[in-house]
Amino acid sequence: MIHVGLSEIKCAESPETLKTMGLGSCVGVILFSEKERSAGMAHVMLPDSSLARSDHFPPGKFANTAVPEMVRLLTREHGLSPGSLRAKIAGGAEMFKSYRPLPMGSIGKRNVAAVKKQLEIFHIPIVAEETGADYGRTIEFFTETCSLMIRAIYKGERII
Amino acid sequence: MHNLEELLPAHLDLLKEVGNIGAGHAASALSLLLNKRVELKIPTVKILTLAELLNHDTEKHVATSYIQVEGGLSGHFFMMFEVSLADRLIRELVPGASVLDGGIGKSVFSEISNILCGSYLSALSALLEVSLTQSPPICAIDMEGAILGEGLVELSLSDDSVILMDAVLRNQGSNNQLKGEFLFFPAPESMDVILKLIERKSSL
Predict the structure, then answer these.
(1) Closest residue to A26, CB basis, from B144, B149, B157
(2) Is the predicted pLDDT of residue B200 greater than 80, yes or no?
C-alpha cells in the first residue's frame, strides 16, 4: 500500500494499491489505465494555483497543477498512452454546515469543478465518482482490479 | 513576518507563553462551568506542514467546533473532543444529550466552545492589547483529518506550514475522565503583532 499524503501525487503498478485518508473538502483524483494496470493518485486541496500567495507549492496541491503533472508522470515516465487514461474521483465534501458564508465559499464544490475541468482539457473520461455531501472519506485504489474503495464513518465501505 | 522559517526558538517560547495564558483562562472557565477541577497540560507550539498535521490521527472520530478569529490578530480556533468524550462533556450539563443528536447536544457543544474560546481570546486580547472578535462556532463530527483539512484551507493559501498552539485540558476524576484539545492556528501575518507587543513588554 502506497500512502498519498496531502498535496502529494504518487503512482503505482499492479499489484500495488494507492491510499489517501481523511478527504474532506479535498479531492482524491485517480488516473489509471485498465490495460496496463497502472495508476496515479493525487490528494488535491485547492482548485487553482492562482489562489496561492506563495510561489513554492507542491504540484499536487492545486487541481490545475495536479492533473497536468499526473498526466505527465503517467505518460512520460510510466509510458501509458494518453488515450488509455480513465479517471475516478472522490471527496469534495462540505464538512461544516453553516448559514454564514465561509471565506472561501464551498471549497469542496470548487475543487470538484476544477478537477473536472482539467480532466476535460486532457479528454480523460470520469468513469466513477463519489463527491459532495458532508462527510469525510478515506479511499484506496486497487490497480489489479482498477476498483476504488471508499470508506466513511457513517456509511461504511463501498466500491466504485 | 510572512516566512515561518524566520521564527526563532525564542519566538516560539513567547508564543508558548501566550498559549499558556490563553489556555489557562479557558481551563478556569471550563472548571467553573462544570464545577470540577480541570487540569491543563503544558501547551506546545509547533511549526509543522499541513501534511504532517493531517497525517496524524487522520481517521480519528472527533467532534470539532471551529471559530474564526479576527481583529488585532487573526487565526483559526478549534475545540476538539473524541466523540464519546464530547458526549460526556455535554452530559455534564444536559443529561442524555449527544453531540450526534443534531439538536440540543450539538448546540451545547458549540456553546461550550464559544465560552472557552472567548476566555482564551479575552486573555490574549488583554495581554497583547488588541481587540479580537470571534465568529459564531460551526460544528463538524467526522474524521479529524477531513475536518482540519477544510478548516485550514485559507491558511494553506499562504504557506504549506502552519503554527499550531496546542493545549490539552482534562479533568481529574478517574472514572469520568474528560479530555479535550484546543488548537489555535494564528495567521502568519499576525505573528508580527504578537511578537512586537511581547518584545516591547519584555523590554520594559
Answers:
(1) B149
(2) no
